[in-house]
Amino acid sequence: MISLSKTLQHLMLISEMLQKRGSQRVEKIVQNLAIDIHWIHDKITFPHWRDIRQNINVHSFYWIQEGQGIFRTDQDYPVSAGMLFYLQPGLAMEMSCGREEPLRITMILLSLYTLSPSADNQGRIEPLDVLPLQFMLKPEGEQGKQLGHLFHKIAADWVPGSTGSQLKTQSLLYELMYELLQVQANVQLGRGQGYELFLRIKDDIERRYSEPLLIHELAVRYGISSSYLRSLFQQYLHRSPKSYLSEIRYEHAGKLLLYTRLTLKEIAAACGYSDEFHFSKSFKQQNGQPPSAMRPQGHGKSG
Question: Would the keyword DNA-binding turn up in this protein's UniProt record (predicted)?
Fold first, then answer.
């Protein structure tokens, strides 16, 4: 089980964009997701094929490569190439296809868990009941091509029992999770003309959080007004750019408090705060307690 920091940062973005569906819970999921691969299979069916979902206790992803058919749960769903189905644990489903165009399906069966890490390495791991994904998605354009490429690569590269293949496939599955949640977010919110610009500015903030960033300077850099910059963040992240910058700094500061012996002054400087006082004040506003309360016992006093 591995995590890829950049991919999970992007997953964090998607989780925040889905806050109307319980963002706090989703955020915990994507920050600490662990993957256990059961089976990956490129299934080629035959004319008049019929079957049922056999393994209902796992998370399943079905990518339709070719053909046409019907999936039945509480209703009938027409199936065709380029469609994705997410089957959460416990969902029963019947599958069939006709004579002319048999289905070809890439199937991925996983157990998913959420981790609760801690500084003393005594974190807990709990099974994940469901991902925040729709049962059926049909991604268009480049997103559809990217998903098709990922499913093909995952199926081609997986070798049961091979440690190297397991690790490589898990890394691809984290990338897949990001792509799926991005597709979901685009379905719900739509991509406005400023979406790519928003992503560039967001990435800029994430890379340069340790610098004394000012919002109006960011706006000038990207040739837009400060009000438009704020509106982009409200539209796609449901918060202000200043609030997002504060959270990025807070997250980095929290890790430095837990895992280093840097003084509060040194942490403030490393995370873009003007001085130790402003760091302590901002941290307490975010966390409800002063930075010193985050220090593990035995780290001693810092400051």
Answer: yes
What amino acid occupies position 170? Q
| DSSP states along 214-260 | -HHHHHHHTTS-HHHHHHHHHHHHSS-HHHHHHHHHHHHHHHHHHH-
Domain residue limits, the chain: 5-189, 195-294
Task: Fill in the amino acid letter for 159.
Answer: V
Indicate the angle between helix axes 5-17 and 226-237, nearest 10 degrees. 90
Q: Which of 103, 112, 81 is nearest to 177 (CA)?
A: 112
Work out the number of other CB atoms within 10 angstroms of the CB of residue 112: 20
Q: What is the pLDDT of residues 76-96, one digit of tens each?
A: 999 999 999 999 999 999 999
DSSP secondary structure string for all residues of 256-279: HHHH----HHHHHHHTT-SSHHHH
What is the architecture, at CATH level 2, of domain 195-294?
Orthogonal Bundle (1.10)
